[in-house]
UniProtKB/TrEMBL annotation:
GO terms for molecular function: mRNA binding; structural constituent of ribosome. This is 30S ribosomal protein S1. One of its GO terms (biological process) is translation. Keywords: Repeat, Ribonucleoprotein, Ribosomal protein, RNA-binding. Residues 26-92, 110-176, 197-265, 282-352, 369-439, 456-524 form the S1 motif domain. Binds mRNA; thus facilitating recognition of the initiation point. It is needed to translate mRNA with a short Shine-Dalgarno (SD) purine-rich sequence. InterPro entries: NA-bd_OB-fold, Ribos_protein_bS1-like, Ribosomal_bS1, Ribosomal_protein_S1-like, S1_domain. It comes from Histidinibacterium aquaticum. NCBIfam families: PRK06299.1-2 (NF004952), PRK06299.1-5 (NF004955), rpsA (TIGR00717). It holds the Pfam family S1. Belongs to the bacterial ribosomal protein bS1 family. One of its GO terms (cellular component) is cytosolic small ribosomal subunit. Residues 534-562 are annotated as: Disordered.
Length: 562
């Protein structure tokens, strides 16, 4: 019985020994290098088992293997024995298993891992993470697109694992995440050492239409185009170039967004400090047109000092013309300072003020009554506009076209381009108006006709037309109308038909209207006036004489005089 027990114990110990010494297939085992020959390392993995591994499996991509006899290494046992009686082992698979264990722990702890880019594939690169191969997408290589990845190949550097699946053997890593994290730390450190108002040196990193980005040593600041110079800058490339070192001032720092605003002009003398002294109101200066808009033109008086010539201050005569028709960009012009607003940093300039007011010049050279000649520029319902010296216009109102007839009837005889002569009636320099008259070139026939006639005068007229309401008469070529009620003192005699065309009639002038060019005439007024005169000369009702006697005496006297 005792002998049997000892045999069982020995067998158990033997089996335990065999299990301990015999490696399990599909596991990582330790071995010792016993020889290096023909590009291979012969490794003893125990239990009198040896296997061969290519030397290249002991080196990282692009490196030379460093392996000597006696070195202990870990290998992956794929098969205990092959056809030649050797163990089938792999250093690469051992490294991969070891790497996956390490990488899974790093992924769980969100730690960085070290690796080297060793190949280019579609959409990105392959990275060796110490035995495990990962995919690095092209978008995760750098914070900006990388045109040449050559300098990054084979270089050991940290990566962040974005995704991994051991069963499928997939690992996705990012180099960009490391750079952004480092950059954020660097930005925070640089920003902590900056303060508003500080002057620093920077390198122009990028130029856009609205400004330039300047590298301040790990952090970028925006230098806006309006803060580059006191003068107008149309595009940043006018004064900056990429890679140029510039001195800038920190204008503002946003601690939350880490955005930095920079300025260059703030380090220069502000030209506005001397504007009021250098450009007094009413002074005239030479300037350059820098920009033209619908409402005017900007003129640079000096670097950093621009003024606006409003469209209303550009020309005395061109009122509804675009500023671009009067001046052009880069043109040198003479302007007058009209107003300065220091608070808003605005200068109002005038272009027309540097030239004499053409209406004032015209008034001096063409006083009232002067005859002028000009071309008809425009014809409206109320008159003609005639071009005059100084590129200005004068107006001939309808009422000043002719002495005879209505202006509405004769304006149709004129055409644009006709050259006409007229007389200056009035020049209003404030309202910029010139009144002309064509009819004033000739004497007023009405004035000539009634020159010796006064109100109350007795004149002889000729009947030219009989109407129901009265009679039309003519005096020295001037037509007038005597109403029925003015045909006689006696109502029974107020009949137009008692007159005939061609009759001569004595009438009394009751009104002279120069505007309507009409005489107010009345037979009735003449008769009443004659009666009063007879009463005064030949007696009154108090003397006992009758009205018939008085009028008879007056008539007899008239007959005797005749």
């Amino acid at each position: 019985m005792a002998q049997n027990a000892s045999m069982e114990d020995f067998e158990a110990l033997l089996n335990e020994s065999l299990e301990m010494d015999t490696p399990t297939e599909g596991s990582v085992v330790k071995g010792k290098v016993i020889a290096v020959e023909a590009g291979q390392a012969i490794i003893d993995v125990g239990y009198k088992m040896e296997g061969r591994v290519d030397l290249k499996e002991f080196a990282n991509p692009g490196e030379t293997p460093d392996l000597d006899v006696g070195d202990e290494v870990e290998v992956y046992l794929r098969n205990v024995e092959n056809a030649r009686g050797e163990a089938v082992i792999s250093r690469e698979m051992a490294r991969r298993e070891e790497a996956w264990d390490r990488l899974e722990k790093a992924y769980a702890d969100e730690e960085r891992v070290e690796g080297a880019i060793f190949g280019r594939v579609k959409g990105g690169f392959t990275v060796d993470l110490g035995g495990a191969v990962a995919f690095l997408p092209g978008s995760q290589v750098d914070v900006r697109p990388v045109r040449d990845a050559g300098p990054l190949m084979g270089l050991k550097q940290p990566f962040q694992i974005l995704k991994m699946d051991r069963r499928r053997g997939n690992i996705v890593v990012s180099r960009r995440a490391i750079l952004e994290e480092s950059r954020a730390e660097q930005r925070a450190e640089v920003i902590a050492n900056l303060h508003e108002g500080q002057a620093v040196d920077g390198v122009v990193k990028n130029i856009t239409e609205y400004g330039a980005f300047v590298d301040l040593g790990g952090v970028d600041g925006l230098l806006h185009v309006t803060d580059m110079a006191w003068r107008r800058v149309n595009h940043p490339s006018e004064i900056l170039s990429i890679g140029e070192t510039v001195k800038v001032q920190v204008i503002k720092i946003n601690k939350e967004t880490h955005r930095i605003s920079l300025g260059m002009k703030q380090l220069q003398e502000d030209p506005w400090d001397t504007v009021v002294a250098k450009y007094p109101l009413g002074s005239v200066h030479q300037g350059r047109v820098t920009n033209i808009t619908d409402y005017g033109a900007f003129v640079e008086l000096e670097a950093g000092v621009e003024g606006l010539v409003h469209v209303s201050e550009m020309s005395w005569t061109k009122k509804n013309v675009h500023p671009g028709k009067i001046v052009s960009t880069s043109q040198e012009v003479e302007v007058m300072v009209l107003e300065i607003d220091e608070a808003k940093r605005r200068v109002s300039l005038g272009l027309k003020q540097t030239q004499r007011n053409p209406w004032e010049v015209f008034a001096e050279t063409h006083p009232e009554g002067t005859e002028v000649e000009g071309e008809v520029k425009n014809i409206t319902e109320f008159g003609l506009f005639v071009g005059l010296p100084g590129d200005i216009d004068g107006m001939v109102h309808l009422s000043d076209l002719t002495w005879e007839g209505r202006g509405e009837d004769v304006i149709g005889d004129y055409r644009k381009g006709d050259v006409v002569r007229a007389k200056v009636l009035e020049v209003d320099t404030e309202k910029e108006r010139i009144s002309l008259s064509i009819k004033a070139l000739e004497d007023d026939p009405f004035a000539e006709a009634v020159g010796g006639v006064k109100r109350g005068s007795i004149i002889t007229v000729e009947v030219t037309k009989i109407e129901d309401g009265g009679i039309e008469v003519e005096y020295e070529g001037m037509k007038s109308f005597i109403r029925r009620s003015d045909l006689s003192r006696d109502r029974a005699e107020q009949r137009p038909e008692r007159f005939g065309v061609g009759d001569k009639v004595d009438v009394r002038v009751t009104n002279i209207d120069s505007k309507t060019r009409r005489l107010g005439l009345s037979i009735k007024a003449r008769e009443i006036a004659e009666e009063k005169e007879a009463v005064q000369q030949y007696g009154s009702s108090d003397s006992g004489a009758s009205l018939g006697d008085i009028l008879g005496a007056a008539l007899n006297r008239d007959d005797d005089d005749n």
